[in-house]
Amino acid sequence: MISIEKVLYTSHTYTTGGREGTGRSHDGRLDLKLSPPGTPGNGTNPEQLFAVCWSACFLGALRHACNARKISFPATAAVDAQVDLVHGEQGFFLQARLAVSLPDIELDIAQQLIAAAHQNCPYSKATRTNIDVSLTIA
Where is there biased composition of kind Basic and acidic residues (predicted)? Predict the structure, then answer.
């Protein structure tokens, strides 16, 4: 069991209609229409949201890794995240690929930073051993 010292933030959302519904945050900052992946329509889908959220969190973990090593975090650092919804013998599951761009950082240092970020990122921790994840340098 993980020891919790302090809750830093609690997200509170309300979703109706599943993949063809709507989702809103209680503070009103998020209000979106959902649609199933691969279908026409104006809504987003859970896999897109997960990819955006994970990549944003991963960039924060990368910034932290750079700061810990006194390395300047590149202003144009980016993560190209792909999250697949797949079906297999055991039903539906996810897999992901994160391609990380760290301009102006040497390859071996970039690899170390990505590994450190993957160890520290809350989304990476939540998915560890649960889904296949590929990390590459873009």
Answer: 21-32
